[in-house]
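Next comes a single protein record:
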Amino acid sequence: ILFTPNCVDLAEIEEAMSLNVHINIDNISILEQFGNKFGGSYPIFVRINPHIFAGGNYKISTGHIDSKFGISIHQLRHIERVMKSTNINVEGLHMHTGSEIKDPDVFLQGLEIMFELAEHFPNLKYLDMGSGFKVPYQDGDIETDVKSLGKKVNAAIKKHEESTGKKFQLWFEPGKFLVSKSGHFLVKSNVIKQTTATVFVGVNSGFNHLIRPMFYDSYHIIENLSNPKGPERIYTVVGNICETDTFAWDRKINEVREGDIIVFRNAGAYGFEMSSNFNSRLKPAEVMFLDGKAHLIRKRDEFEDLLKNQIEVL
């Protein structure tokens, strides 16, 4: 396990240390605090900002020059200063340039930067390239060819080993790539609302449950499970929140009736974990299918859950 925080204090890092996990530090201030207190007694990773613009959009691009993540490659001298003054033991370098990376050569570009930086860290064992593998959200969408990328990365690693004699463990963190397709979000059609220009399907959910379409303009395939062979109609799918929580505009869906069950595909990543109780709405249950059987793995909120942390003062 590699703990990769951002803008946390030293106390939180110490809590992670108590669990004996790998620690990743991404700013000079915490690096100095850590070094002054622990020196080289606990090996660490350092997160590097390589100044590479990558990712599906600006909100999920994390390695460019204006990003809050990582220590800039131009601040290497400050890392070396802390290493010299506190004797910290840097065993790993980490970078994550963004999510939904369409061009796999971005990983190779980042790896070359890692190789250059590695010369400054004598105790280095690990190179962590983070994640960013592209997941297809609609027909014809790009998907990262992991096998092809693996061959290119292996070739680069082998070439570096032959020229320097140094070997590193190469890590990736393909979390979203592994779970996105595994999850589906089910909602019920509450209202079919015809206006002069639009037919709305109003469902019993909102961006409090699935915020990605509103926050990232993300596309999710939407299907009518209750009427999969019905004639296709054009609908705008909206939620039940007090703001404009539109899941999809002018989407072709098999005819939707009130009470029908609608599914959003590819909702296994950044779905429930980004959910909230906005508008005092309850969070949904989670169900896992294993070997053809359904298992409830998270209960649906009850009204009492909204109040359980409130304290009466009168």
Notes: The chain has a mean pLDDT of 95.
